């Protein structure tokens, strides 16, 4: 079965057909690096990393580009406030971004281009648009004319007249039409800037991605992706620039992930519910956060609460516990049962079911349900008096593979730290107090399979490593 994905451009699910068989060119809009990322930024990092992983699982060679905007009004302002130069501040927050997403299981991109390192390509791209009549220069600023591009509005599905209603000319702007947008900005005194045919300045936001996508992936790419908030104006403007310059489609498929709400309210600084990723991963297991993000279809909004994150953590732990229980049972497996082939056939079906869900627009929510069913079936098998090692291993290999597609690596689980053990014991005590014996038993089994021995004493539970 081919992979189907929802194309924002056509608003339909389409069969994915690569430009080049067996290869995928994918561009994801990265962060503007003036601060630490919030969980809204973490969602596309996780979602599109999972898309990449699934394509690789299906045998594709993936060329994955995620850019860094490392010069921008916000970066310049943040540098002034911190007393750093722009490059130092940008470097610091690029490092912070990479540390955060690595903790969340995100693989490093094939290329991580930076605006400041792509300046010659950006200037050449703007020159081309001016030469072709799609852009014009006014006193050191260069603007693109959306009205000159026939397809403007096709991604956001708005007409040029609808877009014109909300457009304004800001104070200091010299553009001819409110819809026109900046490709190059004349530098203010003291700002970081580069020489160009139009004087000293720096690029506008939208032109950066058009130039970087072309440099690293070519004039037409397979998939362009990012958050839903980028559909207009950023991605709309990228299409206009790139297709005007190259006279061919910019991206064949456009993917956008939904918003994140915090306790049923839109996340915003004004509401005081702004959650930084670095703070969350200090407090919670990063794998649980990733699992939570994938528990909802990527195009749907997701509501973040501590309770829902805790529920995701428990759900992931149940799958891990099944894996560790299988490992423990291998020590006593008799290999005498004759229903091995029947069970191996059942296990194979779970992989097919998982692929069916992922092939349908990367439905990770339903794919996770398949994983739950797999863990449940593994527990049923473990209840048998006799087991076969090959079946136990098939269950384990399937759990490892399917979780791996979701970016959770069971094979590289680190030894539990002392404080993690104490936290699990405390959670087990609380579960027993609340008569949640299923959860208490899951924690006991988890610790047992990680060679942690519990001893109930008059002074409470003690533990030691076995």
From TrEMBL:
A motif ('HIGH' region) lies at residues 31-41. A motif ('KMSKS' region) lies at residues 266-270. It comes from the Bacteria. Residues 407-441 form a coiled coil. Monomer. GO terms for molecular function: ATP binding; cysteine-tRNA ligase activity; zinc ion binding. It catalyses: tRNA(Cys) + L-cysteine + ATP = L-cysteinyl-tRNA(Cys) + AMP + diphosphate. The keyword Lipid metabolism does not apply. It is an enzyme of class 6 (ligase). This is Cysteine--tRNA ligase. Belongs to the class-I aminoacyl-tRNA synthetase family.
């Amino acid at each position: 079965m081919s992979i189907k994905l929802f194309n924002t451009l056509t608003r339909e699910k389409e069969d994915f057909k690569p430009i080049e068989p067996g290869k995928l060119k994918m561009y994801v809009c990265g962060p503007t690096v003036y601060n630490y990322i919030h969980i809204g930024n973490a969602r596309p990092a996780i979602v599109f990393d999972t898309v990449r992983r699934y394509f690789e699982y299906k045998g594709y060679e993936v060329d994955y580009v995620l850019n860094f905007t490392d010069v921008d009004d916000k970066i310049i302002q943040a540098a002034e406030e911190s007393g750093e130069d722009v490059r130092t501040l940008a470097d610091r927050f690029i490092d912070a971004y990479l540390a955060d997403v690595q903790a969340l299981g995100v693989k490093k991109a094939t290329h991580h281009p930076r605006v400041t390192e792509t300046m010659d390509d950006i200037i050449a791209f703007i020159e081309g648009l001016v030469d072709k009549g799609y852009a014009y220069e006014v006193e050191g600023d260069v603007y693109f004319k959306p009205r000159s591009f026939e397809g403007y509005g096709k991604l956001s599905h708005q007409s040029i007249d609808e877009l014109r209603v909300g457009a304004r000319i800001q104070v200091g702007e010299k553009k001819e039409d409110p819809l026109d947008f900046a490709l190059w900005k004349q530098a203010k005194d003291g700002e970081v800037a580069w020489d160009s045919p139009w004087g000293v300045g720096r690029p506008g936001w939208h032109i950066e991605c058009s130039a970087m996508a072309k440099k690293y992936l070519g004039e037409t790419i397979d998939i362009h992706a990012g958050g839903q908030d980028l559909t207009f104006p950023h991605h709309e403007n990228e299409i206009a620039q790139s297709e005007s310059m190259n006279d061919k489609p910019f991206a064949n498929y456009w993917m956008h992930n939904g918003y994140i709400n915090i306790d049923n309210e839109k996340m915003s600084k004004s509401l005081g519910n702004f959650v930084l990723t670095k703070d969350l991963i200090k407090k919670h297991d990063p794998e649980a956060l990733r699992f939570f993000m994938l528990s909802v279809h990527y195009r749907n909004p997701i509501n973040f609460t501590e309770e829902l994150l805790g529920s995701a953590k428990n759900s992931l732990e149940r799958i891990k516990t099944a894996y560790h229980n299988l490992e423990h049972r291998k020590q006593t497996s008799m290999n005498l049962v004759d229903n091995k082939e029947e069970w191996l056939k059942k296990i194979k079906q779970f992989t097919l079911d998982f692929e069916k869900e992922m092939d349908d627009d990367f439905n990770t929510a339903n794919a996770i349900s398949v994983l739950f069913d797999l863990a449940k079936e593994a527990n049923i098998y473990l209840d048998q008096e006799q087991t076969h090692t090959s079946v136990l291993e098939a269950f384990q290999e399937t759990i490892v593979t399917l979780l791996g597609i979701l970016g959770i690596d069971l094979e590289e689980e680190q030894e539990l730290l002392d404080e993690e053990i104490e936290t699990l014991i405390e959670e087990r005590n609380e579960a027993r107090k609340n008569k949640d014996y299923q959860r208490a038993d899951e924690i006991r089994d988890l610790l047992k399979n990680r060679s942690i021995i519990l001893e109930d004493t008059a002074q409470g539970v003690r533990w030691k490593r076995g």
